[in-house]
Design brief:
Radius of gyration: 20 Å
Cofactor: Zn(2+)
Number of strands: 5
GO biological process, one term: proteolysis involved in protein catabolic process
Number of helices: 8
Largest sheet: 3 strands, mixed
Family: Belongs to the peptidase M48 family.
Strand order of the largest sheet: 3-5-4
Distance between the termini: 59 Å
Organism: Lysobacter capsici AZ78
InterPro entries: Mito/Outer_Membr_Metalloprot (IPR051156), Peptidase_M48 (IPR001915)
Helix content: 55-70%
Amino acid sequence: MKRILLGVSIALIATACATTISPTGRTQHVGAVSQAQLDQMGAQAFADAKSKQKLSTDARKNAYVRCVVSSITQQLPPNWQANWDVAVFVDESPNAFALPGGKVGVNTGIFTVAKNQDQLAAVIAHEIGHVVSRHHDERITRQMGAQTGLNIVGSLLGARYGEGAASATGQLGGAALQTAFLLPGSRTQESEADVVGQRLMAQAGYDPRQAVNLWQNMIAASSSRPPQWLSTHPDPQSRIQELNARAGALIPVYEQARAAGRTPKCG
């Protein structure tokens, strides 16, 4: 009964939000918050990160990252081409992120695995792919729907069996939803961001084959201890195979970009 009620609650909440199609043709439920709210949340998260983490003062690295971000965002639809803010954080972990509202953060540790501008473009294009694919909107909509549905179930059980049952539902159900409902969606989003990002980098004049080399470097760098992000990412070897397969089909896109004068010289 609990599973049925939870499923019905989530289904009702999902249908109340907007349905859209992702860049790869996947149906998405979005709209729990407005784009203006998403942009504000992105700006706040970015400001918090900059206030809590050390920012790099290396002018060369900052210019390098800004150059790559600029060349990629120029290939976005007009409504996504607003000025993107960039920050380089002094952090050894090889990571990067992009947020709604046009925010990109890159850790200095990324340069240990992104050996050239094409590989850095693969990282940044992937992260920007999350934004333009509305993954933040989709994830917030899912989380709000799951939590609301869980609260409904907890209230129903609490009315019948007491507050202890309601509390247990909140504690156990939240963990179950995170594992069975939210995390698989994250892996789907990661695969989708790979598709969108690899095409973006090719359109910007970066070699899409370098996305394969980047992930080979990532695996080599994390061989002793799998990083936390692997828990919500596709299997690395499968990911490399898919990136390699797509790279061949994207070579004409890359060559057309170069012929059109899109030849980035960032670093």
